[in-house]
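Support request from a user on the community tier.

User writes: "When I paste my structure tokens into the form, the page sometimes reloads and wipes my input. The last time it worked, I copied everything first. Here is what I submitted, just in case something in the input itself triggers the reload:"
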């Protein structure tokens, strides 16, 4: 970021190389919309370039970039809610399933894992926005409570509370699903 702030535009390429996959993963998990992911990732890096001078180099970069990505995703969510309607914006039939263990013994086991992942994904998407963001940042991006607190502009205790309540809600939602 210091190089970017000093006018070395090649530094943006380095940032993109280092952060693109993590931001892409976050944006996809947040929006669950493959068709918007590329555009939102690009917009995140455009905002980084445009606001490079505002970045405080004495602070960690990860909360700053995830704050930008979160705000861009929230803007899309609000736009969809106003323009398209939330129910029409999420179509699970086109979503990749991201199965972690591809060495399953049978097609039945593969189908079972895919169904479970889809149920978890739907349950996470049904959480309120601030719970959903905390879950994605912590469990899928591996961010610390301190970094999440900076992204969400709340206290560390607030992050702990959000994750506790999100886990409790997810447990209720997922326990109601027959196994």
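"...and here is what came back when it finally went through:"
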């Amino acid at each position: 970021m210091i190089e970017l702030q000093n006018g070395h535009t090649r530094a943006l390429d380095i940032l993109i190389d280092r952060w693109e996959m993590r931001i892409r993963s976050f944006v996809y998990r947040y929006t669950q919309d493959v068709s918007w992911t590329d555009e939102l990732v690009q917009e995140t890096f455009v905002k980084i370039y445009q606001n490079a001078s505002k970045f405080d180099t004495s602070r960690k970069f990860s909360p700053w970039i995830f704050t930008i990505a979160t705000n861009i995703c929230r803007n899309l969510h609000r736009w969809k809610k106003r323009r398209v309607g939330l129910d029409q914006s999420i179509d699970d039939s086109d979503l990749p399933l991201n199965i972690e263990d591809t060495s399953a013994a049978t097609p039945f086991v593969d189908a079972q894992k895919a169904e479970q992942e889809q149920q978890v994904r739907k349950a996470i998407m049904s959480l309120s926005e601030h719970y959903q963001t905390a879950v994605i940042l912590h469990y899928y991006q591996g961010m610390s409570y301190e970094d999440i607190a900076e992204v969400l502009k709340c206290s560390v205790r607030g992050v702990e509370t959000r994750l506790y309540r999100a886990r409790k809600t997810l447990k209720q939602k997922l326990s109601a699903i027959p196994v």
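Agent notes: The reload is a front-end session timeout and is unrelated to the input. The CA atoms of residues 28 and 35 lie 9 Å apart. The chain is about 75% helix and 0% strand. Escalated to web team.
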